[in-house]
Structures are given as structure tokens and as C-alpha cells.
Amino acid sequence: MDTHIRDLRYFVAVAEELSFTRAAGERLYISQPSLSRQIRQLESSLRTRLFDRDRRTVALTPAGAELLPRARQIIEQWEQAQRAVADVSRDSLTVGFQTRIARGIIAAAAERLPGHNLRFRQISWGDPSVGLAGRQVDVAVAWLPVPSGISWEVVSTEDRWVALPARHRLAGRATVTLAELADEPFVALPASAGPMRAFWLATAERDRPPVVGAEVETAEEAIEAVAAGHAVVLVSAVNAELYRHDDVVCVPVTGLEPARLAVAWRSDDHRPAIHAIAHTLMTCLCPT
């Protein structure tokens, strides 16, 4: 069901913007090719074209115009159903994360919220909302940036390091620069990660596009790719410690904008329990 709802959300975004570029970059935070592929799959499943498009314009076909109000209604009904289920089981809250949460945080959060059943769910790097947009989770511990429609509070600012194979030529250095890594193949997040993929490839600080040696869905996969010698990867300082590996060496990279870790929640979710767990996580995660 979540996959079908996602495809309808994609369709509605394109239909409202009448632009694949704006819908992909400003509303969905996914790559334009990925969005085009999902729309083609939706058209294939419905056995009809939903858009007439050329290099300059995008317009709804009669079938697309017929689908648009129905798609909005289906999405709204699904969200109402999710809210109803959440109200019935309001003592159960799910926290999303993509990289490991610092040691002791889960136990500390559970201890401070004894009236709630806290669940923790790892979300693929391919979802830049860390499960919030699809309502898989209620609150998330997220590395910024996150898509619009999500509120957040920064709890930690971390320098970016690089994880290198233990036998790499730079593994013994105290620090390295991005220029020294320019020709290295890098581990990349999936294209659907959007701006977060660009941040962890440091594209804004480069003078030429990065070399992508591997794409991964999780932090664990990234570290394994490095250990196998396939690529290097940027990590936060805290994750350099949490993902310690015998075959991987982590070194600080100078001159990079630091990474920001935040507690995030849907902006339209005003349940008191959401703010309670968000505050608790911020208290537990903020350095003392």
C-alpha cells in the first residue's frame, strides 16, 4: 500500500507543479530521473498516459485530469486511516534512524517515557525524510537536510571525517583535505536521497563532480564497501567512533561544512506525545 500511495503522491506533485524538475527538487527531494521512472511505472500499471510532455511543457492528459482529484482523495483517506490507527495505539511510538544512535540513548529515552511503548526502526538512506513522509515513523533522528513539511531541532554539530581502507595511502594522516580525495571513488547514497546524497559527497565543496564507486542503502553497507577497498566515504565524527572496523581507518577532513544531527517530526503532527518524545530525544542526544 505504501508504494502505491507514494506513486500517487509523486503523480499529484507533478500534476500540481506541471514540472518534473520542480516536483522532484522542491517537493519530493528525489532525482528527476527517479521521478520520471516512477511516473512511467504508474502509467504502465494503469495502462494509460497521465501526462503529455516534451522538452518545455508538461500537461495532464484527460486520464490524468480524471485521476488527479481521485488521487488526492485516496491520499487523504490513507492519511486519515493512519491518524485513526495512531490515535488508537497512541502509547506506541516509532523512532526512525539511518545511522546508529549513540550508545545508551534508546534505554535513556525509554526510561524517561515510561507511559509509552517506544519502537526504533532503521530506514534506508533512499528515504530523505527518514520514514516521516510515508508515516512509517513518528519521530526521527535525522542528518540534515530533510524535505519540506518536516520540523526539526539540531541536537549536535559534527565535523566530517573520511573512512578509508586500512591500507589506504592516506590512512596514517592526522588530517586530509578534500582536494587530496578528489580522485578517489566515493560511496554514495541512492539518488532518491536528493540533497542528502550531495551533502555526503561534498559536491558543494568540489570543483568537479565526484567519482562514485558504490551506492549503498545503509551506513553498514557503506563501511563494508570501504573495508572491501571499493571506495571511501564521508562520515560524521560520532559515526567514525560508532562504526569502528578493523579494516577501516577514519581521518578528519579539513575545510568541510560540519554535519548537523537533528530530531525531526512532521510539521502537521500536533499530538502531545510527539512533542514529548522529541523533547526527550533532544535532551538525551544533546551533549552535556
Helix count? 9
Q: Uncertain regions: pLDDT < 50 for 5+ in a row?
A: none
Euclidean distance between termini CA atoms: 43 Å
Looking at the structure, what is the overall shape?
A: flat
Mean pLDDT: 88
Structural class: alpha/beta
Number of strands: 13
The major β-sheet equals: 5 strands, mixed
Helix content: 25-40%
Listing every helix as H and every strand as E from the N terminus to the C terminus, the arrangement reads HHHEEHEHEEEEEEHEHEHEEH
Strand order of the largest sheet: 4-3-5-13-6
Reconstruct the topology from this structure.
Elements: H1 2-17, H2 20-28, H3 32-46, E1 51-53, E2 58-60, H4 62-88, E3 92-97, H5 105-112, E4 117-122, E5 139-143, E6 150-158, E7 160-165, E8 176-177, E9 185-188, H6 195-200, E10 211-215, H7 219-227, E11 233-236, H8 237-242, E12 248-254, E13 259-266, H9 272-285
Parallel strand pairs: 3-4, 3-5, 8-12, 9-10
Antiparallel strand pairs: 1-2, 5-13, 6-13, 7-11, 7-12
